[in-house]
Amino acid sequence: MRIAVIVFPGSNCDRDCLHIFNSVLGVQAVGVWHRETSLEGFDGVVIPGGFSYGDYLRCGAMAKLSPIMDEVRRLASTGRAVVGICNGFQILLESGLLPGAMLHNRSLKFVCKRVDVRVETSRSSATRGLPRGTILNLPIAHAEGNYTVGEDELKSLEDNDQIVMRYSSSIGEVGDAFNPNGSLGNIAAISNRSGNVVGMMPHPERASELILGGEDGRAIFESFVGWGSGGVR
Amino acid sequence: MMEELAKEHGLSADEYQRILDELGREPSLCELGVLSVMWSEHCSYKSSRVHLKKLPTTGPQVVQGPGENAGAVDIGGGLAAIFKMESHNHPSFIEPYQGAATGVGGILRDVFTMGARPIGNLNSLRFGNINHPKTKHLFHGVVGGIAGYGNCVGVPTVGGEVYFDDCYNGNILVNVFTVGVAKIDRIFKGSATGPGNPVFYVGAGTGRDGIHGATMASEQFDEGSEDKRPTVQVGDPFREKLLIEACLELMETGAIIGIQDMGAAGLTSSSVEMADRGGTGLRLVIEDVPMREEGMNAYEVLLSESQERMLVVIAQGREEEVGRVFSKWELEWAKIGEVTDTGRFEVVHHGKVECDLPVSVLTSSAPVYDRPQSEPARIREAQPAKVEPTADLFGDLVQLLGAPNICSRRVIYEQFDHMVGLGTVLGPGSADAAVLRIPGTNRAIAAAVDVNSRFVYLNPYEGTKLAVAEVTRNVACTGAKPLGTTDCLNFGDPTNPEIMWEFAEAIRGMAEACLALDAPIVGGNVSLYNASAGKDIFPTPTLGCVGAFESESFITCGSRVRTVDDLVALVGV
Amino acid sequence: MPRARVLIHNRKGVFDPAGKVVEGGLERLGHQVKSVKVGKVIDLHFESGTSEEILAQVEKMCRELLVNPVIEDYVVEIEE
Amino acid sequence: MPRARVLIHNRKGVFDPAGKVVEGGLERLGHQVKSVKVGKVIDLHFESGTSEEILAQVEKMCRELLVNPVIEDYVVEIEE
Ligand SMILES: Nc1ncnc2c1ncn2[C@@H]1O[C@H](COP(=O)(O)OP(=O)(O)O)[C@@H](O)[C@H]1O
């Protein structure tokens, strides 16, 4: 098992993700510079959070031009797990690997805090071991996490079980009061049709060690690792 | 005519005469610009130097005291915590977002210059009355700027303090603090040694922004100051992030002899300071400096305060490593000169010598003033305020808890990414100091910034002692042992003897308290002329303290009530 | 020197939080305004090229990078 | 319905980091462009008013809220 953590100019959660894989989970992960052109030998890809290219123009817009993205696309098409966290989610949207787009948070402010999310499906590479309805307490940290998508696509996301997490209360009520950014349908994470490509706004790497106040994020990494090299299920 | 120009550059008649005596000739315009920034309060500490000497700066735990870009203390395990605090008051008043943002950028560079990866930012903010018409705009701008910059570079903002008071209506304070961690035997200094070694410029291109910012920071605000606008710079945190990674990567190669960020007074002060520390000279070629505007002259290039730039002295023969690393990180770089043994700061532009001054004239010959002091009348006249208890104590409590200076700071710190880096064990809102573990080790540090300027106003000596006590106590409460402090001394107009008295008294108190608490001062910053329309701010000597834990397991639970039946104890006098 | 200007706005029906905030701010200052939209303007300068060439090139840039069609609409203006 | 458009750019000499990044991106896509500037556009719609009235009002809005004169320059365009 070997994981690639893609490093763009301006990524800033790459080292954090590497720490969780290598030092907490004992799974080999290496940083891969965005100009690389091969992901040969990797079984999964994490696109970490941060501010790739300073988030200038639009979050994730510049990163989609990087050479490595062709390889990410190729790996995704073979069914390997590809997870984009925060800015990584934005990059997956801009690259067309996931449908929809991000708008500014409705508060127009950056927001960094812990929130609760409800797992909506266990058929994604990020939530495989997690029963539907599981509540996870995870940090968010973003200025543009206000997910939006056309009506038809939203319906198709719902019909195909592609909504992975929604913002919720600590007992799993979903509603506007628990939505930190105004995202459509309180969506916090989605996947592609086959479930292997996932984009999520919360930062599971920030909640994978007790000393940092919680371990709920670990389940996501464990699911990701467990998706393995087996490809499409 | 030169004399008139000298005045416009903020040099007094005496100071100009001193320049003529030292040089034995008139300076060129370019030299005058260089002299004026190097002799400005900001770079020369001319009014504060005699007092700062009195501070305790040594101890077995001190790895680097004042004099370098930042101070360093030994936190065990072969690691040093490197930290510094700096003010960006005047730029933030003129343009709150960019002023605060570039303040964060500057303090980060001071810390990673020394080889440390920054792991935490804190800040200490002072605004005018919350109902003053300007306060809202300034507050949102400053908080937004700190967030915008810190979040993007990926250094968590883990703590700070905010107060509102009328005395800051026309002169807010934005003090920013960064702490980083490096291996003790891998600390880099801002020193240019080895004549013949090439000098490299790395980072963003030079533009015309911020020319004369350093002099501006030392001038009092007056009615027209809101028009002095082009002196404000725009920060690019994205480029700063690349600069951090590139510099840390280049440091690994062993090719670096000395490295220094270009802060206030940009290329001038960074090269002069490096030559001064190295006991050498420096020769720069202006046309080789990466520029982002056309037709810039030597004066402009030397005094520009464009952000996100560094000066690096490289060991001869290792030049191509700079190109390899900086090109990878998509940053501009160029060789712009070399170290000499002449002891002079020489600048040529297209073959013409624009500046040729002895480094010592720019540094050690800069004027030092022991300005007159006098105790303000208010000190003896002050009477204790009488507060009558009311019948509704509960109501009073609720009102107090909602007061602008006491209420929750959540709206502020939720805008800051305080978790990136996976170090934040106790972040904002959870303890009296921020606690950061150092991933990959079992070590952790605590950091806090504090001062109650009202106390300092009422009694500068006792008030500053209290500030030192508070900041070290806040660190100690988390279970860490305080190791060292840094200061950011925000005072009014030093030519006013009462302000100078406040300053001297504050230093006296700080020295005594730091000595008693074994928390030596390892770095600091002085910001004078904090006044508007002739009214000075409260003397505000902000203190920052860093302490260390022997092990992560000594971290206390923070300041929260945990469970029913927990014991509550009052400790102290 | 030819110049192109790309004006980018959120598509009709897509929430424009910045516009809402500016609207509120202007109202608080006592200004009467029916609605506000905040967008981006990108000015591109070229060494040379005819209007047609530049228009074609800028349209391509918009598709490839400058505009996200999921949420944004744009207009290109060419100046010579 | 009268409309005003405010175009806001960083002042000459003030760094435009976004423009620089977009420039790099376009180059990577193989486009030849001399320089890029990224700014804001604010479209204001009004119920009524003559061009002169609206221009005066929008100028006031720019001074009071929309533009930060320390770093930004602006142009107002009125359409009827
Ligand atoms: N400007 C700021 N930036 C980040 N955190 C802040 C800031 N101001 C206050 N905080 C955080 O908010 C919490 C409460 O602050 P404060 O009211 O000053 O607390 P106390 O008086 O208990 O020290 C602290 O954890 C502090 O670090």
TrEMBL record, chain A:
Gene3D superfamilies: 3.40.50.880. Coiled coil: none annotated. Keywords: ATP-binding, Cytoplasm, Glutamine amidotransferase, Hydrolase, Ligase, Nucleotide-binding, Purine biosynthesis. CDD domains: GATase1_FGAR_AT. It comes from Microvenator marinus. This is Phosphoribosylformylglycinamidine synthase subunit PurQ. Part of the FGAM synthase complex composed of 1 PurL, 1 PurQ and 2 PurS subunits. Its EC number is 6.3.5.3, 3.5.1.2. InterPro entries: Class_I_gatase-like, PRibForGlyAmidine_synth_PurQ. The gene is purQ. Pathway: Purine metabolism; IMP biosynthesis via de novo pathway; 5-amino-1-(5-phospho-D-ribosyl)imidazole from N(2)-formyl-N(1)-(5-phospho-D-ribosyl)glycinamide: step 1/2. It catalyses: L-glutamine + H2O = L-glutamate + NH4(+); N(2)-formyl-N(1)-(5-phospho-beta-D-ribosyl)glycinamide + L-glutamine + ATP + H2O = 2-formamido-N(1)-(5-O-phospho-beta-D-ribosyl)acetamidine + L-glutamate + ADP + phosphate + H(+). The active site is at C86 (nucleophile), H203, E205. Signal peptide: none annotated. PROSITE patterns: GATASE_TYPE_1 (PS51273).
TrEMBL record, chains C, D:
Pathway: Purine metabolism; IMP biosynthesis via de novo pathway; 5-amino-1-(5-phospho-D-ribosyl)imidazole from N(2)-formyl-N(1)-(5-phospho-D-ribosyl)glycinamide: step 1/2. GO terms for cellular component: cytoplasm. It catalyses: N(2)-formyl-N(1)-(5-phospho-beta-D-ribosyl)glycinamide + L-glutamine + ATP + H2O = 2-formamido-N(1)-(5-O-phospho-beta-D-ribosyl)acetamidine + L-glutamate + ADP + phosphate + H(+). One of its GO terms (molecular function) is ATP binding. Its main location: cytoplasm. GO terms for biological process: 'de novo' IMP biosynthetic process. It is found in: Cytoplasm. PANTHER family: PHOSPHORIBOSYLFORMYLGLYCINAMIDINE SYNTHASE SUBUNIT PURS (PTHR34696:SF1). Belongs to the PurS family. This is Phosphoribosylformylglycinamidine synthase subunit PurS. The gene is purS.
